[in-house]
Amino acid sequence: ETGEGHIPDVQSGEVELDTTLETPESHSGAYQAMIGPTRSRAMRVVGTIHEKEVTVFLDSGATHNYIGRELAQTVECTLAPHQPLTVVLGNGSRIVCRHICKAIELMLQRELFTVDLLVLPIEGTDIVLGVQWLETLRDITWDFAKMRMSFQKKEGGKHITLRGIKSMVTPKATLKIMVAQHSVRSTTL
What we know:
Elements: E1 42-49, E2 52-59, E3 66-68, H1 69-74, E4 79-88, E5 94-108, E6 111-120, E7 127-129, H2 131-134, E8 140-143, E9 148-152, E10 159-163, E11 179-182
Parallel strand pairs: 2-7, 3-6
Antiparallel strand pairs: 1-2, 1-5, 3-7, 4-5, 4-11, 5-6, 8-9, 9-10
């Protein structure tokens, strides 16, 4: 039984994973998001939430923002119910996001951003910021060769440059989210 504030755990068997693969066309009008190196460009930066260091993937192909279950529990974010959103992982497994952490204060290189983050009930994910966050930045200059993203912050018009971490480290295969769509199923997490 899962109550508000409890995030189910994939490894303990609380989460039902559906490994059947369906095409986006089979869900007429379903909302889709693409995350992962084959579909988009991403940059990794270091941030903090409540003085806890976190890894943040800025992903131009993701339409949503996500936080991993483990991190959501660690930073004690307040969970709110969310319309079910099915997320298809890179390995074909499906999970359903049913919770959101609202108005999380995320510090990225000395700049504070307030974001809403859908909770991914799997281990190992910190944060993915997608188009949901990127579109709030207005004009963006993104240099992937130099791992820099520049923009003007809406509040006050301050010019910000975020510098990415250059490394060969990639997210775990289970974190390479490929498709997210509003769930029309009643699978319980």
